[in-house]
Amino acid sequence: MITEIQVSTRSSSEFRDITAQVQRVVDDSGVIEGVCHLFLPHTTAALTLNENWDPDVRGDLVRALSALVPSVPYRHREGNSPAHLMSSLLGSSETLLVRGGRLVLGSWQGVYLAEFDGPRRRRVLIKVVAEG
Length: 132
Description:
- By secondary structure, the protein is of the alpha+beta class.
- It contains 3 helices and 8 strands, in the order ββαββααββββ.
- Strand 5 and strand 6 form a beta hairpin.
- It has a single domain (2-130), classed as YjbQ-like (Jelly Rolls), CATH 2.60.120.460.
């Protein structure tokens, strides 16, 4: 079964911690050992794993990505070309291990939806698969 969660972003660029929402999907699946696949069907947002302790890290990521992807004249006329490029840099999927019914994450890791063209309502598709 594929589960869909909704994430509403609040600003043009932000990193939203969705770890708890993803863990709830794992809990509801009943899977004890396996994998959790996440897919974001959008081209101006991304999924990533990063630090969840210090909120300044999220702001630093937004600033660094903005510096990497300049606002120059792009041929795409919608005005969101930088968002497409930032999304491509981070990617639209993540795969996490599940052990003991919990997402396997490092001590300071969280699952983030990275918004680059908000605010918007985003969908994340999640498939939890049991081992074997």
